[in-house]
Design brief:
Blueprint (H helix, E strand, L loop, with lengths): L2 H24 L3 H5 L9 H19 L16 H21 L8 E5 L5 E5 H25 L9 H8 L2
Antiparallel strand pairs: 1-2
Helix pairs in contact: 1-4, 1-5, 3-4, 3-5
Amino acid sequence: MSALDDVRTLFAFNRWANERTLDAVAALTPEQYARPLGGSFPSLRATLEHMLGAEITWLARWHGEVAGRVTDFSDCADLASLRARWDATWGEQRRYLDALTEGALAAPLAFRFRSGVEGASPLVEVLRHVVNHGTYHRGQVATLVRQLGGTPAGTDYITYCLTRSP
């Protein structure tokens, strides 16, 4: 498998895992979705907004844009509207990945964090970071769903692979 195929597979996994996570959250009440629980972010809602915001920010950076502001989610009053926004972001990611070439993966991507710190990494590392970031926060979401009495989604990479095997 080429590095480009690997990255595309990782993003397909990321979408699959995020969709399963959103399904698990959808089984909760709107009150539970917004309830302050503590942790890295105040609520399930805030955690999911952070996850999507990071994907939106990195997508902008892939296109050479300076992403300095926190993403505004005031138009996402509920989980359904957040999911619709995520669907649109997934579409943009897919178009970007479909147009990507193997050679572009090694090119450095310069970026600036919101703190003002600048960095640069090969694009392939940045792409892998985005998927890893999602995995990290899906673990937090699973804990919050469990604390609220729900059933978290199984989102292990190997489970994804097994669902795709012939």
